[in-house]
Amino acid sequence: MTDIAYMESGNSRQIEQSLCKRLEALRLARNITQQQLADEAGVSLRTIGRMEKGLGVSLDTFLRVLIALRLQGNLDALLPDPQIRPMERIGRRGKERKRARPKVTENQAPWDWGEDEQS
Fold it and tell me: Which pTM does this prediction carry?
């Protein structure tokens, strides 16, 4: 399975391994040693090695490596700002959503106070 396929249908472990392999490829493309990346990210050399082998790293470590590689701006594509929705903003006239409410399906009975039930 390709990296892209893992991103779309893989489990969390496969996605993590795929992302870590991409970070390794980016490090190598920039001609940065593991030690240089570790120093810049403020983590140990062993941590970088574990990450590149896909053996698991903390979110903090992952973010430190992204920052060290100057990739933190790419997080906007991963998690876009929910406030920037021009078409919805026009329809709501500036009234932004404060709560989420699940949609009622046709098979789901509407909620009531239970006044019809007799004890």
Answer: 0.61
